[in-house]
Design goal:
Strand order of the largest sheet: 2-3-1-4-5-6
Helix content: 25-40%
Oligomer: single chain
Distance between the termini: 43 Å
CATH architecture of the largest domain: 3-Layer(aba) Sandwich
Structural class: alpha/beta
Radius of gyration: 24 Å
CATH superfamily of the largest domain: P-loop containing nucleotide triphosphate hydrolases
């Protein structure tokens, strides 16, 4: 990925829903002015959600998600419908494509109910409007914002894109750490380069934290663990903050004077995605783990596992040492996240840098509704090493909760 590319977790996610042959794929091609989706007269061409990152003016960086038809049939078809509905959990703007010559169906109304329950912005695209008479056009109505469009003739496509912009709600501005700093503050970033580190680049949370520091006109010093002590000695004044990779928390905590604020990339990412408070509350479940308990370790992306992978190797070993028990670890990655969480004693999630905020909130809400404690990598590692209070102290809203 180019360093200048917008990460998928930072893009507006636009979900395209509708029945088979409603024209979902052709509408995607029309609004993007590209042949992104396969178009066919046969029903069920799109069998799995298809993701495409692109720039869509005037919205900006978006992730367009083409979904299977919500009227698919048979046992396999029902699985596809379920996949389509799951996309609602990561959707910022939802588009329901309806064949204008057919009208709104019971399947469309059922999907609309789910969209409204989730308080998602939605617009109906009455596609294939070139097939309608003027009288039929005037007779079309819908309970939500709607527009007649034609993927074939491109009628109202520009206006439809403008309407999408109005649907995007303005969210509260959040920063990874810029709001914790004053101009020209010095921040040290500890980024270990081991066998699991990607070749030739920093991992995404490190890139994003570094960019946030630069954007706020602060000073970043990037070191590996072995260079940290030397970097501290060369500074005339202590740094305003040290941010480290969570897996080297114990070593870094010993090297950094206690008066210097310390946290991790994973903790900052959870704060940025809105899941940190739940993670701090949920981590105490580690104290109740017994032999045979199931722990779900979930990551938001898929990557090649190394022999010392943090999620599948290091974290389970640290948990075994801390709990003095042998729990059963279940691993999921990418879009895989169980709907039924009842088998698990607790959930430990990565920082979620590849997931958008809506999906992180959804996963936390699933855990909360099913009363399953959920935490994240950084919080769990800090708690295991007895430094949780110290590592959230730079975050006043979280430190206050721990004191209660």
């Amino acid at each position: 990925m180019s360093l200048n590319a917008t990460p998928s977790g930072e893009r507006i996610h636009i979900g395209i829903f509708g029945k088979r042959n409603a024209g979902k794929s052709s509408l995607i091609n029309a609004i993007t002015s590209q042949s992104l989706a396969i178009v066919s007269e046969y029903k069920g061409t799109t069998t799995d959600p298809v993701y495409k990152a692109m720039e869509l003016l005037p919205l900006g960086p978006v992730m367009i998600i083409d979904t299977p038809g919500i009227d698919d049939e048979g046992e396999l078809g029902q699985l596809r419908v379920q996949k389509a509905y799951q996309i609602l959990n990561k959707t910022d703007i939802s588009i329901l494509v309806v064949d204008a010559s057919v009208g709104i169906s019971p399947e469309d109304n059922l999907l609309l109910q789910h969209i409204q329950k989730k308080n998602l912005p939605v617009i109906i695209a009455f596609n294939k409007c070139e097939l309608l008479t003027p009288e039929e056009r005037n007779a079309l109505t819908a309970p939500v914002p709607h527009m007649l469009v034609s993927s074939l003739t491109k009628e109202n496509i520009h206006e439809f894109k403008e309407a999408l912009t109005k649907l995007k709600t303005q969210e509260a501005h959040r920063e990874l750490l810029g709001d914790l700093l004053a101009p020209s503050d010095v921040v040290i970033l500890v980024t270990p380069i081991d066998s699991a580190a990607p070749k030739g680049r920093l991992i995404l949370p490190q890139q994003q934290v570094l960019r946030n520091i630069i954007d706020n006109r602060d000073i970043a010093i990037v070191v590996q663990v072995n260079e940290l002590e030397s970097a501290l000695a060369k500074l005339n004044l202590p740094p305003r903050l040290i941010v480290t990779d969570s897996q080297v928390f114990p070593t870094v905590a010993k090297l950094v004077p206690k008066e210097v604020p310390l946290t991790s990339f994973s903790i900052l990412m959870a704060r940025y995605k809105g899941s940190l408070l739940n993670a701090v509350k949920g981590v105490r479940a580690l104290d109740t783990i017994q032999a045979g308990d199931k722990i779900l370790i979930s990551e938001g992306c898929t990557h090649h596992r190394q022999c010392d992978d943090i999620g599948t190797v290091k974290l389970p070993n640290w948990i075994r040492t801390y709990t003095k028990a042998e729990p059963e670890f279940i691993f999921t990655s990418g879009a895989e996240f169980p709907m039924d969480l009842s088998p698990y004693k607790m959930i430990i999630h990565c920082g979620g840098c590849m997931l958008n905020e809506r999906e992180i909130v959804y996963r936390n809400k699933c855990a909360e509704n099913q009363q399953i404690p959920m935490t994240n990598y950084g919080i769990a590692i800090a708690y295991i090493n007895g430094i949780l209070q110290r590592t959230v102290a730079p975050l006043p809203e979280i430190a206050a909760v721990l004191k209660q």
